Batch of 2 targets.
Target 1
Amino acid sequence: MTKLQLRKFINWLGKEGYSIIGPVKEGKQISIKGITKPKELDLSGCLPLYSFKKYLIPPKEILFEYAGQQFKSQLVSKKQALFGMSIFDLKALLLYNHVFEKDPYYQARRQNTLIIGQVRMPPPQFPSFQIWQEKYEEDVLEHLQFDIFLGSQRKNGKGINFRIYTGTRIGQEILESFGYKNYEHIQFAGPIKEEGVEPQILEVREKMSKYFNPKIWEKLGKICIECGKCSLVCPTCFCFDMKDEPDLKKSQGIRTRRWTTCFYEDFSEIAGGHKFLATTSEKIHNWYWHKFVRIPDEYSFPGCVGCSRCSMVCPAGIDICKVLSSIRGRKKGEPEVCKIL
Amino acid sequence: MKNPYQPKTAIIRKIQPQASEIKLFTLEFKNQKDRLEFIPGQFIEIGIPNFGEAPFAVCSRPGDIEWQICVRQAGSLTTKLHTLKVGDMVTLRGPYGNGFPQIKDKNLLLIGGGLGLIPLRPLILASGEKNQKIQVFYGARHTKDLIFKNEYKLWEKSVDLYLTLDKECPGWKGHIGLITTLFDDTKIIENAVAILCGPPVMYKFVLEKLKEANFADSDIFLSLERRMHCGIGVCQHCTIGSKYVCKDGPIFRYDEIKNLPEAI
């Protein structure tokens, strides 16, 4: 598919009633936003700082509107097409699909969401994670869930073409109705590769669950300032609070669910004021444990997608690659960076 | 799709003040069809519109139509709850969690510190199993903190109840000292499983006493408290390592958690 065809396709999706949400270049940064014209979309293949998390798990959502004891929920959700989800964001989507499998709010939103993936990589100053190569496309894609995926294909000379893959019947139907037939279908083969989870990931899980080298957390506890930016930007941080917001009318209001992070003071506080995550090092340990032990224990795949966004935003300069290297205990001659995700 | 956050309505049928700032609420489901059976040790999410929800152990006799919760006034929800009157309504979700294991072939040693007696009460009220003896250790700070005072006589018909207060109090003629001192001054029930519930600081010292008394790790069960929002294993507030207190607990066998430093 050429760039021109792709723009036509996006226009067509808009006419079919989808709100188009995708990467938009704003100054030096690429944001994720709703667009009205396909031209606004950034097709560079660079990884946006933010993931698509908030379009699948909103920062704040209304669970119920209540009046006295009457709690009413509304599950209506608009048709949206998430365009340009990176491999990282698609891995996070797999996690959301598991975590929120029994959640009617997520499921309603998910049913009305068209997932369009695209090859997108972090900027070159974060080279540490596995580099995407065209020949891996199919190997990787069969372990992700998407409706349509845009692989990149360099043209002889300048510019770029897109190889089109489908992952669902809906993806196929949409392309066919648009009038595009030159796509390949990829059958979803489950979230884990045939050869299993990468041994390095298993090693991190193993070492963490044995509380190997607790000094790492003491050291990080001294650097981390508990700002919670890593959670905000992390596609797999999904912890939430539930809170009522009263209306001015008597005994009316909304029960909400909203993002939080285990770095916030009240996250583990119980009646009487005791906090189970009391120190910075306990908090950061819990953050890593969730991604590298708890999620693997629950779903058998890692809870870190390897996008390195947390390293990009950390004001204290904590680099997840370096942390993972020190958890594993860097072997002699091994580069400091990790190539594990 | 079933909505796990949809609360049910319950009517407050009785309010019995227990101790300073502690009240026992008797609740009846507005719609009897909403009522499930609970297992002792399980908890429910009680809510009041505008004040949100919080978890409380069900403390009534299993099988009773009406459910009871015993609540200390601590935060905004419980303060509001304490202002409610008989006939007022609250919301209810649950029961959640695993509950205590059913133990039939061994005796029971129940150890409750402070409000930790609350989740143990269903086991005491349901006692009467043939060939099973129950010994109860209950420690409180002061006479005015003792809960379920008017029931002790009734309980003593089926369980051996040992009370202790942290310090001397006017009018108190019973045992004095922290709950651990009961171990030194009492003949511990033999062939028993120990069930503990109390403030975090209590567990470490009671566990030492239980080990001295040769309780196997697999014969010790602890009810753990954590902050909870969803109650169904999603929000992550209540985790200990890879375990969820709301879903895998709140009752844990000691050998399952003894290697998790953040558990106790």
Target 2
Amino acid sequence: MTRLFLAAGVAALAIAAPASAKPGGNGGGQGGDKNAVQTNRGGHGGGGSAVRGGGGNIEARGGGGAAFRMQSRGGSHGGEIASPRMQRQVFAIQEHGHGGGGRAMKIERSNVGHANVVEQRGRGSEMKLQRIEQRQVRNVEHNQMRGNQLARDRGQAMGAEMKANRIERVSNREALRDELRTNRIERLDNGMFVRNANLGTRVVRAEDFSNRARGYGVGGCPPGLLDKGCMPPGLASKLLGTRISDAARIAELSSVPYSVRYLYPDTNDFYYRYGDGYMYRVDRGTSLIDALLPLAFGGYMPGSYFPSSYMNNYYVPSSYGFNSFYPDSPYNCNRYVNGVIYQVDCVTGFVENVIPMYASGYGVGQMLPTGYGYYNVPYQYRSMYYDTSDYGYWYAPGAIYQYDPSSSMITSVAALLSPGFNIGQPLPMGYDVYNVPYDYRATYYDTPSAMYRYNNGNIYQIDPATMLVTAIVASILT
Amino acid sequence: MRTQALTLGLAAILLATAACKNQSAENRMNAQTPEAQKAAGTKTIAAGLAANGKFMAAAKAAGLDQTLAGAGPYTVLVPDDAAFDKAPAGTFDAKPENRAQLTGILTNMILSGTMLVDDIDKAIDRGKGKALLASMGGTLTATKDGGKTVLTDSKGNKATITQGDEKYSNGVVHHVDAVLMPAKPAAQPPTKAGQ
């Protein structure tokens, strides 16, 4: 009966102990006796878990098995509330701690004269404690890994949040900048419209200036270079002798397109790069730019000022029909110097485009004039020279050029054309010789009353008395 | 193993792409619409002239090989290789920086339409010993000298037709013994509008 009461009391104490134990109570009681050492070991289970797991509550419950003793000895430390997962882990530790509690009951029994049994059981308990301790260490390590995982997850979440905040800040900044820029452009546009109103009908000019205001102009490129990739000639010439890697920071360089690579073939000594209207030859040994070939042509480059003295004298000649192909307008003044047509802004005097004439050596490997990127092949040649995805065709007095659409570089001369005839005009100089193609000679041969000459796909009739072109009698290409 | 297989596959794709690009580049070099090829006929001037001759080499460098393979018709004055050798050093150099000059020289020897030697001679007779021929790069003067037809450029260089009337589907070729140079682009511009 006594035993029954004792057992019931101990059980009650054991049940009550965890509840009465102070949070954070350290199982590490101080004492020199064996039991105290054993208790201390039991407490270590909790302590270990506290240190490694980082959960104060674990610490309290870890020593829960011997909690009543901790309370009596006053050994306690504050603790914190752990996460639910930690609490689950705590239960496991608590069970191990109960091992220590069972041992305590046996100590009570030793007080009533079962010292031997207690000693034997105490040894068994010690081994058991060691096992428990090992298990606790494993559990604590596992717990630590989970804790670390949690910390990592939390860190990642925080990192993502910070990143999102950063992106939001950048977006806000960009939005603000866009808004400011829009306002600026709007102000400029308004200014231009005011100017436009003052200038009357110059709507096209106003749009042009407005475009210049958007990021170009001051500190940027001269207006005429907008379409040519923004490389002033003076700057381009300074790239001579520089390393290609340094030049690539200034100019937008790229490999020569396949379709025109045969015109600029790489050798063992050098290779080519192109960009911004120039072809750069690079020495393989030194990686220095050793030659600069302008792909556009002429003495005055787009963006430079055309001499005002030339404006009044250097008109496009009528020979070869150049003046009818390049007529002046109120805004564009075309001038001709040394085989090159310069399209000049009549107001500002800026050269806007440079169009070399074929007779002066313009040809393959050079760039299509920027103002004439549209299909303009004469009608009688259109069935033979039409644009495809691989190449396009462009006509200028003297030739039909084939060009690479990606680079606008001329890849070949598809046809050479002589200046066309107009009905009623005198036969131009140089057509003294009969030149009608074989297949038409039986029909169109010279007589005292009519002469025939071939020109650009057509056979023309000429009056021998007046030497005027009187009719087109055949078109041999259509 | 898997990485190796992936690397090999990638390399194969890259090689195939490069091959396609090269093929595409070759096609583009000879790109000509089928209609233009049909109009040019079966044996064009470009096909008839010696591919390894200096004239065709220069024509290729100037991008004029397609012109001579096109519909035409053209009359082409072809200097023989010895005439090319007589020209100042570097005149026909195919370097990119020399291409403009090369183009100017070659186009000076290409004329619009079909002119047989007999046509030129008749024009000389009508013109009392002289006829003017408009080439793509300037104007040539035709005369007779010792029964042979002689062409003179604006610089006074003379070339005699040594073998004429070589007919092709897109024109005719006359072989000459010298290179005819183009006039230098006019240094003095016209002083009045429209002139």
